[in-house]
Amino acid sequence: MPEDNAALPAIPEARVLQSPDGPIVETWVRVRFAETDAMGVVYHTNYIIWFEVGRGAYWRALCGAELGADAGSFPVASVEAHYHAPARYGDLVTIRTSVQEMRSRSVTFAYECRLEPTGQRLAVGRSTHLFLDAQGHARRLPEGIRLALLGQQKA
Amino acid sequence: MGLVVESHLRVRYAETDAQGVVYYANYLVWFEVARVNYLRALGFDFRSLEQANITVVIAEASCRYLAPARFDDEIAVQAWVEEIGRTSLVFEYAVHNRATGQRLADGSTALVFVSLGEKPRPIEIPADLRRALLANSSDGEHKEPAVVCES
To answer: Minimal Cα–Cα distance from A1 to chain B, Å?
Structure first.
């Protein structure tokens, strides 16, 4: 690899913070030109894709891997976002993901996007996911996954 | 509810994901198609707003998912104005599969009108647009879509 790469600041893939309300997983995205729109800012739908980036990091950090398709799935039942300030091309954005609510058959993740290095809040949101088994029926969350998502045990 | 504008679209392969269904964030792009068509049906377009140094930003967006859409499905997205504020508008949406009539999703977005310039700030909805919105939104009764837009 060219030596120049060594000079690039390292952005860790993710890190896990412990809070009284449970784990918070931080991950980072650098805004791509493709994510901006004619207003010169990040197109609003892309925050919802960033929420998925955060959720994926949360799964990998606490459950070890994404859930295999044969084990079931977690389709999105609802999503919402509240926009506070715009992000622009090249910005580094921190995505903080946590579990907001755990029910027997669903889990709600909460997200917060902040601009680095100022910490300015860009957007917050949440998404609710049902657990479906491999046959597509809504089921109780398997205990191992439930505990892992709460940071109480590895899946 | 007043005026309901219905936009028709066909699911692109690019909009599907590894689960074989439309990726959930894409419904919010369809909402944009629907609200642009709604404003166009009233005789307004975003481009002329921007020429008047006004832009519209999204303050909130939400979507509830009821059933999946798949590649090549013909989709209807209905849009109507639920709330008219001083500087903001709330649009609501209903998404259906046109072949089966099944409801796939519903959602809402809050838009804020913003003046472009050195210090962007919320501004009142332009008077002519407000008049048109009020004229089409007041009766509170569900109506059949008055306008259908093919896209």
So the answer is: 33
Q: Would you say how long chain A is, in residues?
A: 155
Q: Name residue B62's beta-bridge partners.
A: A80, B108
Question: A49 to chain B, minimum CA–CA distance in Å?
Answer: 7
The string of pLDDT tens digits covering residues A117-154 is: 999 999 999 999 999 998 889 999 988 889 999 998 75
State the Cα–Cα distance between residues A5 and A18, nearest whole angstrom: 32
Query: B50 Cβ partners below 8 Å, 6+ apart?
Result: B116
pLDDT of A1? 46
What integer is the mean pLDDT of A74-79? Answer: 96
| A53 interfaces chain B, CB cutoff of 8 Å | no
Q: What is the ipTM of this complex?
A: 0.81
The verdict on whether B17 is a catalytic residue reads yes
The CA-atom distances, in angstroms, between B15 and each of A78, B11, B57, B98, B142 are 18, 7, 24, 18, 30
